[in-house]
Known about the structure:
The chain is an alpha/beta fold and 313 residues long. The protein is built from ten helices and nine strands. Strands 2-1-3-4-7 form a five-stranded parallel sheet, with helices on both faces. A two-stranded antiparallel ribbon has the order 5-6. A two-stranded antiparallel sheet has the order 8-9. Helix 9 runs parallel beside helix 10 (294-312).
Amino acid sequence: MHVLFPKRLWVLVLIFVTQLSYAQSGQGTSRRAQTDTLRVFLIGNSFSQNAARYLPQLAAQGGHPLVIGRAELGGCSLERHWTHAAAFEANPNDPNGSPYKDKSLRQLLSEGTWDLITIQQNSMNSPDPGTYQPYARQLYDYVKAIQPQAEVVLHQTWAYRSDADGYGQVSPGTFAQSERDMWEKSRAAYHATAQNLGVRVIPVGDAFWAVSSDPAWGYRQDPNYDFKAPKYPSLPNQANSLHVGYRWTNDQKWGFDSHHANEAGCYLGSLVWYTFLFGDSPQKLTFVPEPVPAVLAAQLKKVAEQTVSQVRK
């Protein structure tokens, strides 16, 4: 016997199903009540450390309880993370299988239940799509076997600064030629991998490029500084830089880091993560790291919100 439902009831059911699907996809606002604790686990390297540096402060100020777990190794690629995991599965007593402060990835992932787990490529290999597979898939399957309810997402890393002396690998023996080239190719590789895995992307790399490529806000090398003969303790003007850039070490040696994020870059990355994770606008947040000028901080909030909004469309 078939039961006939009124047309109005079918419409209400359809609306409910559509809204439920939308919320579960993460494309709407936060997927959980604001009072629920979000447990996020990062499988990465120094770039994930940079990008999430201020996430705890932002989450606390926004009223979003947060727990962060980490499996991070300097410069670690998808391949290396997977190699360590496979070594542990083959022999739990193999030290190569427990590189995260003498713990394995399985042990760390098994410490409670995680809601969202991130993976990423190391920056040097990020423009080379051939370095993502099969390792991204292997890590994805491994993570889901341990935490089947967790959402796995890709953290899209950023390109090196415009005055870097080299950029990431595009293919074996071939390298990106500029900041834009590295961003475009790494973005393509991340999104191709995300499509293959059926996962979302945290668009930190896009946010970095949005600032770097902006004529009004992007970093430009100081034309008045003598880079060939720098004199301690003077530094070039590096206004609006998102990367560490030029610096003097504690022993008064001249240093340059065009790869890692400085305080402004870490703040931007954390704003993107906050907006992505909680579906919440960062505009109401007042926390700003002390070295970041207020006017730049306001612009970074706008960029973070716009970048995440564009990815959701």
